Amino acid sequence: MATTVKILHMTLDGVPLSCLECGTVTLTLDARGPFAALATVWATCANSHSWAHQMITVSDLEAIQANRTGRQRPQDADLFEITIGGAVLAGELYPDLTPEDVKAAGRIYWQRLIKPALRKQKRRAVRAVTQPVKQAARSTVAAAKATALEAAWTAQAGGYETDPNYQPEPINPCPACNGKGTHTIDSHLHTATHVRCSVCHGTGEID
Predict the structure, then answer these.
(1) How many H-runs (helices) and E-runs (strands) does the chain carry?
(2) More exposed terminus of the chain, fewer Cβ within 10 Å: N or C?
(3) Which residues pair with 6 in a beta bridge?
């Protein structure tokens, strides 16, 4: 026998039917036996507790399958209601997958995964193109500002020209020549003579 019914919840005359051990209402009912006349309906809960259901028969499982409402849209519930010995057995079946479920899952997959990923890729591509342009523009603006400031300072200072003979002051002046790099030798017979300092070798600095 291959008759199996998966139930989310069900009641018998309004009384909930659940697992005898843990109280779980989600059950799987399946017929076990060589053929319908000798088959027994077994119930298995979501926690794997299993027992032979004495109240429901194979004919009841077939009646549930025949009287289920089915689902056309994702929000629909697959309901059933049959009569067993004068009592009403009603409940909701575990939903089967419908084409609308596939479409809804596709929309969710597109909206939550694919579309955001494509949007991120688009933003990265735009940044890859625009960021170098923006950086070049900022560099150009900065250079223009620096040139303008230099021109304004030159105008305020009355202009300036670089002295080609300018030499900066020595950092560590030679104590022998006081940083001059040479010694002046006065002579009554000749004009003053400049001799290179032998300590700093004419640099005016010592290490």
Answers:
(1) 3, 9
(2) C
(3) 28
